[in-house]
Amino acid sequence: QQQVKQSPQSLIVQKGGISIINCAYENTAFDYFPWYQQFPGKGPALLIAIRPDVSEKKEGRFTISFNKSAKQFSLHIMDSQPGDSATYFCAAADTGFQKLVFGTGTRLLVSP
Amino acid sequence: DGGITQSPKYLFRKEGQNVTLSCEQNLNHDAMYWYRQDPGQGLRLIYYSQIVNDFQKGDIAEGYSVSREKKESFPLTVTSAQKNPTAFYLCASSIRDRVYFGPGTRLTVT
Fold first, then answer.
1. In degrees, to the nearest 5, what angle opens at C-alpha B73 toward C-alphas A31 and B25?
2. N or C: lower Cβ tally within 10 Å for chain B?
3. What is the DSSP letter of A104?
C-alpha cells in the first residue's frame, strides 16, 4: 500500500518537445505529491508539488496533473530543454507528513 | 550559507568494517532522514527522526544504525551486517512537508 509506481523508466525527448512522466499510487491516505529533480552525483531538489484539492498546478514550464479518482498524477515539462536532462522522481506522503515514499525514477534525456 | 552537509563525498571501505556517514544541517529543521539510492530502485528510506533523541526505522533499516543526540546532526552507521552496502546515501531534513536533500555520500565496499 506504500508503493508509488513511476513510468517510464527512461525517456528521450527532442528539444522543444513535451516530456510526460506518470505516477500511480494505492494508499488513499496520501495527500501530498511532490516531484524531485536530480542531476548526476547530486541530491534531489524539489521541483513542484501538489495536494489533492486541485487537479493541476503549473510553475513555469512544469505542470503537475492530478487525477484523484484514478489515483494518478503526472509531470509535464513543456518546451523541454537539454538542461532539463536529469532523473525525475515522484513521491507521496500522507496526512501529518512523517516521510516521503518515492517512485523508482525516470531518466530524461532531451536531445539538442 | 545554509544547507545540509554530508561528508565525505566518496568513501571506500573493506568488507566487514563498520563505517559512519556524517550529516549536518543548519536549517533548524526538526526532522531528518537517511535514504539509500540504487540504480533503478529510487530512494528507499533507512531511518528517520522527527525530534532529538528519537528515531524510527524506515523500510530497509537492517544493517544500519543511527543516533540523534543533537538537532543539527544525524549520523548513519553502516554495519558489517548490511549485505550490500555499496550505494549512494542521501541525508535529508524537512520543515512541514518540504524536504531538502544533502549532496550525498557514495560508499563503496570491496
1. 65
2. N
3. -
* CA angle (A110, A34, B54) in 5-degree steps: 130
Which 8-state DSSP code applies to residue B70?
B
The H or E element spanning position B93 is strand B87-95
Query: pLDDT tens for residues A21-61?
Result: 999 999 998 999 999 999 998 999 999 999 999 999 999 99
Place of cell 506522503: A93
Q: Which residue, among A39, A100, A101, would best test binding to B if mutated, counting the most B CBs under 10 Å from its CB?
A: A100
Q: Give SS3 for A84.
A: helix
C-alpha cell at B11: 568513501
B46 touches chain A (CB under 8 A): no
Subunit contact A97:B94, Cβ cutoff 8 A: yes
- CA-closest candidate to residue A43, choices B73, B84, B71, B92: B92
Q: pLDDT tens digits for B11-50?
A: 999 999 999 999 999 999 999 999 999 987 789 999 999 9
